[in-house]
Write a structure and sequence with these properties.
With 469 residues, the chain is mostly helical. The chain has one domain. The chain contains 18 helices and 3 strands. A 3-stranded antiparallel sheet has the order 1-3-2, with no helix packed on it. Strand 2 and strand 3 form a beta hairpin. Helix 14 packs across helix 15. The longest helix is centred in the last third of the chain and has 33 residues.
């Protein structure tokens, strides 16, 4: 492309970006096409993952083991404020549901969709991955459950247990329903529709916690707790017996027990759903079904295609992951069962899932996060200014323009590459738990590393490819 042509394209894109358009709660997601030499980034990312595998294959296991074991104790604290914080969180949740039912109909003016999709799903996931398990304190169920247990004199010591054969399948089914609602439903940002769905989910989960105990349901049935607890294992903050300390990012993943097939499926679904969210808007995906991306028909017309794609993406990722584990076992002469090997190695998916989440929702967080600050000051559109932010100007230009595009691309690409490199690092540590001989451990990781290289290329391609909608 000549310099003059590139300037015309950039000027046109900037002009179009400044024109008024209909706004939705996810409108800032992938708001521009990055005109950058993506081939170099893709090649460099794949090379970084490959080189990290080769370096780790040559390192003695003791070196990496000593690296992961390092801890820096900080301070101790108790659980006394946990009930109060959870009750405050529940009160805030109830207020948001009321705002969804009785507040503004505009998704960018009503705080409920902005808090759920931007601050909770996009932003809080990042906090979990950086600061650790904050959700166990902030979730809106623990406090009400403790109060209800005392009022109704429930036996919290020995509640009925979920059948062991269920595993994580309840959480898997609910996470799939959540992903379908976010990605496929025609109007997930509609405040009243979202208020009904969120309120119903809270009530169903609370009833299940009363029936099976808080720990019993939250650890295997309540998908947000399951997802956030898995993400928190990556965080450099570690809490053991009331003592808070620092560790290397990903170190807690190495201590994880092998997940059952349902837990493995849950983690793979978390990664595949975010991947499909990006894929479903690309010219490539729409072209497969004969849809002109420049005449985007809207979500209602794509319900069938979207549902098929969401399932297909998960099935393909699960099949490729299973194949990589099986081939790795064959190469290493592994005597462990497939379920044990897959359930242990799937923990290496967490850095990748977190990296994709950050990269995918970065623009949403930067722009819609500002809308959330405005909406929270006036939740019922009554002219309030509770936090002094109701009249704040939203700077959507933070994601517009060539310079912003360059910075965003490099941050997103860097996060994805770093996530895959850390995944290779974690996978090697997990492989040494399965194989005592370093050579066998390295061989067992070769197919999984190839999968991670391919997924790195796929992720960087998603960041740069044109999208519609």
């Amino acid at each position: 492309m000549k310099d003059h042509d590139a300037g015309v394209v950039l000027a046109s894109a900037t002009t179009l970006a400044l024109l008024p358009t209909s706004a939705f709660a996810h409108a800032s997601d992938r708001g521009h096409v990055l005109l950058l030499p993506t081939g170099y980034y893709i090649a460099g990312g794949a090379l970084a993952v490959a080189v990290s595998f080769l370096v780790l294959a040559l390192l003695p296991p003791a070196v990496l083991d000593n690296f992961w074991r390092r801890r820096l104790p900080l301070f101790t604290f108790g659980d006394a404020p946990r009930i109060l914080i959870s009750l405050i969180s529940f009160a805030g949740f109830a207020l948001l549901v009321a705002a969804g039912l009785f507040g503004s109909r505009d998704p960018l003016s009503n705080p409920l969709p902005l808090v759920v999709w931007t601050l909770l799903w996009a932003g809080f996931t990042l906090l979990q991955g950086v600061l650790g398990d904050l959700w166990s304190w902030l979730n809106p169920w623990y406090g009400p459950w403790r109060v209800a247990s005392r009022v109704f004199a429930l036996d919290t010591a020995k509640p009925p247990r979920l059948p062991s054969w269920l595993g994580y399948w309840p959480a898997f089914a609910l996470f799939f329903a959540f992903a379908w609602f976010e990605l496929i439903d025609p109007a997930p940002d509609d405040p009243a529709r979202l208020a009904f769905a969120a309120g119903l989910y809270w009530l169903v989960s609370f009833t299940a916690m009363l029936a099976f105990g808080y720990d019993g349901w939250s650890r295997r049935g309540e998908f947000l707790t399951v997802f956030f607890s898995m993400v928190a294992r990556f965080a450099p903050f570690e809490r053991v017996d009331g003592r808070l300390g620092l560790c290397w990012p990903g170190a807690k993943l190495l201590a994880g027990e092998p997940l059952p097939q349902s837990g493995t499926a849950f983690l793979l679904l978390a990664l595949s759903s975010v991947s499909f969210d990006g894929l479903s808007k690309t010219f490539f995906w729409l072209g497969l079904f004969g849809i002109n991306p420049l005449e985007y028909p809207g979500r209602t017309a794509l319900i069938g295609i979207g549902s098929f794609g969401l399932v297909l993406t998960f099935v393909l990722l699960a099949a490729v992951f299973a194949l990589a584990v099986i081939l790795g076992q064959r190469l290493a002469g592994d005597k462990h069962s497939f379920g044990e090997a897959a359930g242990l190695l799937v923990w290496s998916i967490v850095p990748i899932a977190l990296a994709y989440h950050i990269a995918h929702y970065l623009t949403v967080l930067l722009v819609d996060g500002q809308y959330a600050l405005v909406a929270l000051s006036d939740p019922f559109a009554l002219g309030w200014d509770l936090f002094g932010t109701a009249n704040r100007m939203v700077e959507a230009g933070v994601v517009a323009g060539a310079q912003s595009a360059w910075w965003l691309w490099n941050i997103q690409a860097g996060v994805i590459i770093a996530g895959h490199v850390l995944a290779v690092l974690v996978a090697h540590g997990l492989a040494w738990r399965l194989h005592k001989q370093p050579s066998r451990a390295a061989l067992s990781q070769l197919p999984l590393t190839l999968l991670m290289i391919a997924y790195t290329i796929f992720g960087l391609w998603l960041l740069a490819t044109p999208t519609a909608g």
